TrEMBL record:
GO biological process, one term: proteolysis
Protein name: Membrane associated rhomboid family serine protease
The keyword Aminoacyl-tRNA synthetase appears for this protein: no
Listed InterPro entries: Peptidase_S54_rhomboid_dom (IPR022764), Rhomboid-like_sf (IPR035952), Rhomboid_protease_S54 (IPR050925)
GO MF, one example: serine-type endopeptidase activity
Any one Gene Ontology cellular component term annotated for this protein: membrane
Entry membrane topology: Multi-pass membrane protein
Source taxon at top rank: Bacteria
Family from the record: Belongs to the peptidase S54 family.
Organism: Streptomyces netropsis
Keyword Membrane: yes
Amino acid sequence: MNDQAVGCYRHPDRETGIRCVRCERPICPDCMVSASVGFQCPECVAGGSGTGHHPRAQTPRTIAGGTHVADPRLVTKILLGMNVALWIVVLSVGDRVVDDLELFGRAALTPFTPLEGVAEGQWYRLLTATFLHQEPMHIAFNMLSLWFLGPPLEAALGRVRYLALYVLSGLGGSALAYLVAAPNQPSLGASGAIFGLLGATAVLLRRLNYDMRPVVALLVLNLIFTFTWSNISWEAHVGGLVVGTAVAFGLVHAPRDKRALVQYATCGAALLVIVAVVAVRTLQLAG
């Protein structure tokens, strides 16, 4: 859809850059009805309550084509619960769980033991590391960020697309860390996925013609922390940000008549790039 200013569909003489998040028709301030994410037109609001007559309002869809649900935070709650549950397990069991699930390319955890890591076929570490935390401040910051960024994206994208965005962002961060970092350098945490959500938020706000300054300031601040604080895997942050931004762009800018095809292709292409990066690095370490 063209994001340039056009006339409101009910008041053609009033230019606007805002569109209904359900039917994507342009709406002026007098026609905007606030929703969980963005604004809806009066007809879609009426259609959502069963009183509308516009055909596109009978099956309300989000801006990315997802269905509106009663609890737009469900997936975010599940992801947050998985992170916290694994953190509690780490506190209870100790370093053994961390050694089994954290990300590193190839290393001997103790002297005279076999090499372990992604290069040794333990590919699951690319995903399990994104749910793994040790320090209280680490998980607290990541989970607060997830709770702040996740629900609006989940409401705008729909559950399945949002989950795909989260997982691919986390894997993208792990893939870049695996490619660039030293083989024995461990990496863990949901930060790669969180940076992907941050990039996706910027894409969504741009798509809705909202003020970009707050999210840009937040992104710049987080990148400054990434490259100035010690013991931070900048590779995971940058990898998650790049993948999350790219995937979100494909999700929210897919043309309506080819939406499913473009969105599947976007997620598939991101996954193929991740797999290719992992394969290349594995061949390097094997050689």
